[in-house]
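Input:
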Amino acid sequence: MTTSLLFFYFFAAVALISALGMVLNTRNTVAAAMCLVATMLSLAGVYLLLDAYLIAAIQVLVYAGAIVVLFVFVVMLLNLRSDAFPPSRQVLSKALAVVLGGYVMWRFLKLLPGMLPPEKPIPAGFGGYEAVAIELFTRWVLPFEVTSFLLLAAIVGAVVLAKRRLD
Amino acid sequence: MPLDVLIKTLFIVLVVVGAFAPVITWIERKQSAVMQDRVGANRANVMGVTILGLLHPLADVIKLITKEDVVPAGANRTMHLIAPLIAAIPSIIAFAVIPYGGVYHFGGTTVNLVVADVDWGVLYLFAIGSLATYGTVLSGWASNNNWALLGSLRGSAQMISYEVTMGLSIVGIFMCFGTLKLTDMAFAQDATFRVFGFLEAFGWLTPLPAWLSWVQLPMWGVVLQPLGFVLFLTCIMAENKRPPFDIPEGESEIVAGYFMEYSGMRFGLFYMSEFIEVVVIAGIVTAIFLGGWSIPWLSSAQIVAHVSATFGDGFANGFCMLLHVLTFFAKVIGMIWLQMTIRWTLPRFRYDQVMDLCWKIMLPLSLANILVTGAVILGIQGLTR
Amino acid sequence: MIPLQHVIALSAALFLIGLVGAVVRRNLIVILMSIELMLNAVNLALVGFSRAQAQLTGQIFVFMVIAVAAAEVAVGLGILISLFRNRDSVNVEDVSLLKW
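Output:
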């Protein structure tokens, strides 16, 4: 029971509890967004334990620091009241969804040990910004450039969608 | 190994957060008084002894602790409670990667005066800075108040806009020093370079005569990247919502903006976190642009060599360590003075001017900075091959 | 040294929580957040496998997934704001014109 395994259990517990808190939270959408932030921060902790240092920093910077802030902006601007959602009429199908989800999870966990490939040792500097940058800009430079086009399309789309029509 | 991390953390928390932040409130009052040709706050006393007004921070703390803790009706109590914490915590933990001293060898042990020497130090600072946005976002929403919501929306939009330019303006420094690690940047800035060395590199004047070789500048970030320094300082001051970028807290316009409904120690946390961030800004700018702990024109190897001739190696390293820590804090105090001067000189920007400045002026300038830096580095590499 | 099995089990658990959330909840914002949770679970599985196979390809793919997630959130929230302006509700049961 090494320290890193203890840290992993701690981060995994925080991630699972925050994820459940986000999905089950019916009253307060901003609290759900904060639970999502807690999940993302604990996942960043798990990435650090898995030697993915650059990805952990990017996760906190982009995901927890910008994407969820955007969610919280929208929730604040829309100013949703907590009574906007009357009790659901389809309790049975929701319960069935939860039960089926749990069953799939249980079967998957039973099959998991036999499905995994053996682990290999990692070289020094694995997951650091230099190794990832060399890989990204030599072997995967075309997907990198295409991603920039994707982001441009998303920016234009978001601006067009959110503009008020002046007519 | 965890013991020295604990000692360094305690040093940071006690000295920087506990001692510097209250002193900065005093600096703000006294420096503004000197700049505006008045006396400043000097009434707080203990039995008639006023130490130039240095007891005012203590009076501030006593006042804030004893005030009534008001939570507005209809506000979300949990969010109202955690918003000041989320605003204060990133300011304090940003100190984990700032080196306030170099690496010193005392016989068998090696002392590295930084709490966490990670390879991606500057990325950690950006990540922590982006988490600080939540304090602003949540505090306005949790107050159930129109004006607080307006201030918090403006403040968080300003913060996330300036994060982009802050990251881009420092890419030039990454290109010059070739590292993201703040300790390596401090070591790289410990050297000097000859100003007229380009004459020798171009082949116009080889070998360089001694009187031209003697003109050397320390290889500081502000010398290598002057435009990057100005851009970064502007962006990080806008990130901290210090005047002239303090339209979200506009004290004379929307009362106190996003922390209007906070009183007592909750307001104290917001107030303190802003002043701790002043120290953080000073620390970051010192470590990246002003040479960190290094003394200009006097590298640490020279100090150790000169002192160990008479006093021995252990004492030389200890003396060097003391000099470097004092130099670091002197530079930090200089940067704090600069921020206070800017704060008390410039009037507040209007909100559309703040956004224009970021997206229309500083973003193109930082991209141009990256372009020019890359071109110069490639040119130098090509010419000196 | 974290065993790969633990990482994949956590990733599967988060993915299923996100999936059930996206199916069961009626608040459009929470549905979008559950989709983000599913993308995070996939990122975790990619990073775990990249570590086990000692190849950086998994981490490069995580970059692309994060960029795509950012783009999708921006456009998704734009659509949500337009929807709210037209119908004054983010309840997904109110957006059922095409339902048979």
